Amino acid sequence: MNKKESLLDAFVKTYLQILEPISSKRLKELANLKISCATIRNYFQILSKEGMLHQAHSSGARLPTFKAFENYWHKSLHFETLKVNEKRLKSASENFGLFTLLKKPSLERLERVIECEKRFLILDFLAFSCTVGYSVKMEKFLLELVGRSVKEVRSIAASVNALSLARQLERLEYSNTQITRFNLMGLKTLLNSPLFFDILGGKVLERLKKGLHFIEPDCMLVIRPVEFQNERMQLLCVGKLECDYEGFFQTISEEE
User: Fold this and answer.
1) What Å distances lie between residue 73 and 16, 122, 134, CA to CA?
2) 131-140 contacts, C-beta under 8 A, 24 or more apart
3) Which residues have CB under 8 Å from 126's CB, separation 6+?
4) Where is the signal peptide (predicted)?
5) Domain 3-72 belongs to what topology?
6) Is the pTM for the entire model greater than 0.85?
């Protein structure tokens, strides 16, 4: 990491702590930099031209841009499985201003397909079942899916336009999925977003991989595998770009 990148990281990290425009003098003091204010101002000019900082007002103090946050979070956050504590997760979600959601993936698989007098077919997932009208073509299609997860069966059904079956499976999967939410107020900035209900219901986890996803002009979505109450789950975090995600993950870790 070169000096310019180090200064930008120090700038964003300092901004996350104070959430105010930062001058060269204040950055030098708060980040304990060993370079002069004049040198810092030169870097400010370079980083501003590169779209990483913008001037807050005529005083010369700067603010990080979306591009700076994107760069910082991609370098700072990691996505290995984290063992989390429920009490810490609840309080930290509120204290850090984040909406969080835990979703236990459905492990149910299609165990068998039962043909009933050539009138309908029963799809048996053990924990639940559903029915579709009988046809030779449908029976052959479903028998090839035995052993697949409910999510895979639903996705394949939708891809071949078996929409009635796909909708049944979506309802059944949702009703059999364990979802825990914390700090619903953290979603208020996304009330008008087309993603609001997908985030609230956890459906966004079906199409997004673990990692960072930038949504809206100033919001970020983080997906990370976690161990919660001795079970593997997915953790979804949603909040402003300037939320302290590093501090949040450190706080909720059971290993801290």
Assistant:
1) 12, 47, 52
2) 132/162, 132/164, 132/165, 132/168, 138/162, 139/113, 139/115
3) 108, 111
4) none
5) Arc Repressor Mutant, subunit A (1.10.10)
6) no
Q: List Cα–Cα distances, 196 to 222, 244, 254, in angstroms.
A: 15, 22, 30
Distance CA 209, CA 140 (A): 32
- Which residues of the chain does CATH 3.30.450.40 include? 77-104+178-252
| pLDDT class of 176 with cuts at 50, 70, 90 | low
72-to-8, 66, 105, 110, 142 alpha-carbon distances in Å: 8, 10, 30, 43, 47
pLDDT digits (tens, 9 = 90+) for 135-169: 999 999 999 999 998 889 999 999 988 898 998 88
- What is the pLDDT, as a whole number, of residue 256? 55
Query: pLDDT at position 76, please?
Result: 93
